[in-house]
Amino acid sequence: HLSKRLQVVASYLPNSAQFADIGSDHAYLPCYVCLQDTRARAIAGEVNEGPYQSAIHEVQQQGLQARIDVRKGDGLQVIKENEVEQLTIAGMGATLIASILEAGKHKLERVSRLIVQPNINAIALREWFVHNDYVLVAEEIVEEDGHFYEILVADRQGADQPYTEAEKDKEMYLGPFLMKQRSKAFIRKWEAEAMKLRRVIRSIQQADQIDEGKLKRFEQQLNWIEEAIQ
Ligand code: SAM
């Protein structure tokens, strides 16, 4: 049984996917995809010995050694240029995911789709996509075990950037697709964030030295949230 958030990641892979899952841990995602689609092939990358061994074990257990290659290494170092067409990276902070993509940029030329699931700070990935010729084409948010997970899908070309001139910063912060969908999970996530922000704003206002720049930024964010969930 695969978690809902990883099922959503999997749902954005095309049939016959040739992909790498970086930070694969137990390789549950590549196993799930390859069991469902007999033409899919994957590389499961892991930097740490424990999860690497778990991945090898799971792939053997499922009899998928012929189609899933488990490799040990840091980020995109485990893939060669032109080896995969899609990339999944899930369950880490957006800053770490962005730094993995940045460090392995030269391996991405033939990667037509990136599917990422950052645990926090998705804005860092939306920005990375814009600066690196990827176009955000879909977003989903799921709530599971009291956590909110955002899944971002970006393609190499073929679509226009989803941001508007007038509201770009707000769309970057909240997610241009998520904002439009206004799903239950989206509203619940941002209600919780708004509560945190109000607390942060109050404590800034009560400090001896008020950091005006910071205060402005947080008030701006709170405004965006309130507009989006009202
Ligand atoms: N992707 C799985 C998921 O979403 O359930 C596992 C997420 S787990 C929280 C993060 C995994 O990423 C860990 O197994 C960790 O060892 C691995 N990891 C962290 N940094 C990495 C890197 N630079 N390269 C490869 N794997 C990395």
UniProtKB/TrEMBL annotation:
InterPro entries: SAM-dependent_MTases_sf, TrmK
Gene3D superfamilies the UniProt entry points to: 1.10.287.1890, Vaccinia Virus protein VP39
Signal peptide start and end residues: none
Keyword Methyltransferase: yes
GO biological process: methylation
GO molecular function: tRNA (adenine(22)-N1)-methyltransferase activity
Alphabetically ordered keywords of this record: Methyltransferase, Transferase
Name recorded for this polypeptide: SAM-dependent methyltransferase
Source species of the chain: Pontibacillus litoralis JSM 072002
